[in-house]
Amino acid sequence: MGWSAATLGLAESRTAAANQAGAVAGRRTNRSFVGGVQFGLQPFCYHDLAMTPENRSTLVHRLVQNGMGLVELHATWVEPRFDGPGISAEAAREQLRAWRLGSPVDHYRTVKKEFDEAGIDIFTYYVNINETYTDAEVDAVFAGAKLLGARGCVGSQGLDVTRRIARFPGTHGMFLGVHNHDNLSDPDAVNNEASFVKALGFSPAVRATLDTRHFTAANGDCISFLEKHHDRVSSVHLGDRRKNNGRSTPFGEGDAPLIEVLRLIRDNRWPIVVLLEFEHGTLRPAVEEVQLMFDYCKRALS
Amino acid sequence: MNRFLSSSCGLIVIVSVSVGAQSPSSTTTQTRASYDINFIGPPLADPVMQQAKETYVISGCAYCHGVTLTPRGEATDLRRSTLVGSDINGDRIVALLRAGIPQTAKLSPMPQFSDLSDRQLHDIAKYMHYARQESRYTQLVVLGLGKGDPAAGKVNFDQQCASCHADGLAGIGRKYDAATLRLRLLRPPALSGLPSFDVTTLHDSKVAAARERHNHLLENYAPTQVENLIAYLGTR
Q1: A5 and which of A10, A115, A142, A169 could share a cystine (Cβ 3.0–4.6 Å)?
Q2: Is A259 in contact with B22 (Cβ distance < 8 A)?
């Protein structure tokens, strides 16, 4: 699969943004294309908001509040929950699998409509696929993600699972995003350049979802990684952290080269989506914190 | 202003946010910061403990371990951690915070917090103990597992209580019913109240030590222990 703005589905949104909120009828606008970079949010950031279908309308409202036109949507915002009192984890898992295999097309379309109406593009669908997923279930997850309008599914699965499921996204015209953490003690983990390269080798449809916080905490060089592998990077999770498995920090207080990453993407016109994410502590409400982060990025690109 | 010293118990404070050296703007802006009561919860009555709680939150502990220690995702449940339970004034927690847990089977290792000050690390430990005590009290105060075992309760009493209560709390079982004994066991009234700025106990090291000892017992009580102790005290 070729790698371009078109395959990421960004060309349309960029054009719209260039047209100043794209007044062209029928064309989706994207309010968070700023300074030459497509921004979005990993709404894990709204730490006070449980990631449930019941809270989805609040999520949409907050995304609009934060000026976001693009999101990486975790499956738990979308899928019904089957856990509850008296229901074992195994039973709940089986019911979820059955729901996915039941092709709930209308459900996915309804969710997509909610985001469409708010002018929010579901860029990727975050699902931590693991060894309990059957092949049919993996296929169903990609099919559902496509109905949401997502260009790919993203997860923190290890190398073994990535190898196994790498053949699925291509059949849907999608990609599989591999998200890194900083666990350097697990040989199966995606945690540095070498493990990313292994994962990317499993299929052309595998992409890197480079988490700048965790990559920095694992003592990786985000700039070098992007310069070498930008054509295989679908997005970055942009956040700050200290090296040597250090803690997350507010933007600009850690060791992640946030400004350099943003300018590198902008100056090279790479179709890499920047998804803001934070796990640093704050006393402020999450919406306020996200706004501070977004404003920081805008200043970096101004 | 130091972010860690920003607010004690006020809901709205003025905080000077200094944008870091990496910032594209070198200006220092005056920002009206607010307090996320929905996530952090209402400010605590004790300003010292509130500061400890804020340090816990600002250091990022709450996103994984929960504000009230209800863990999220793969994080350790600190309410049931034997390491935290055996910690006295940070003697075990602080070292762990400084080092982190890089070797782990979990997706994300626990970070190290070596850049925080000794004071901040001890504040985190202090809040963990407080939250454990609150959690355990909430659980145990409503629990009624049925009849406890007075003999087992006596063993517990001899091991944990007798060194201070040399009189064996004689007569307490005739004075209070089981429900009252439960309340007094979990939170002895003489030790209640704010530990900070409490002039009535100023310089009373015995009360301070007793409070510390009872709080340590509280956060480590097993439900059966409490039932057994109540059963034993009822015979006194």
Answers
A1: A10
A2: yes
* Band (B105; pLDDT cuts 50, 70, 90): confident
Among A130, A182, A245, most B C-beta atoms within 10 A, so best to mutate, is A245
Long-range pairs, A163-170, Cβ under 8 A, ≥24: A163/A202, A165/A129, A165/A133, A165/A138, A166/A202, A166/A203, A166/A205, A166/A206, A167/A203, A168/A135, A168/A138, A168/A139, A168/A142, A169/A142, A169/A203, A169/A205, A169/A206, A170/A1, A170/A203, A170/A204, A170/A205
**Residue A30 pLDDT class (50, 70, 90 cuts):** confident
Question: Using the beta-carbon criterion (under 8 Å), do A245 and B63 form an inter-chain contact?
Answer: no
Number of domains in chain A: 1
Topology of the domain covering B38-139: Cytochrome Bc1 Complex; Chain D, domain 2 (1.10.760)
Question: What pLDDT is stored for residue B12 in this prediction?
Answer: 36
pLDDT at A53: 98
A130 close to B (CB below 8 A): no
Q: How far is B190 from chain A (nearest CA, A)?
A: 34
Domain segments of chain B as ranges: 38-139, 146-234
pLDDT of residue B202: 56
* CATH label of the domain that carries residue A47: 3.20.20.150
Q: Which of B13, B14, B15, B23 best probes binding to A when mutated, by most A CB atoms within 10 angstroms?
A: B23
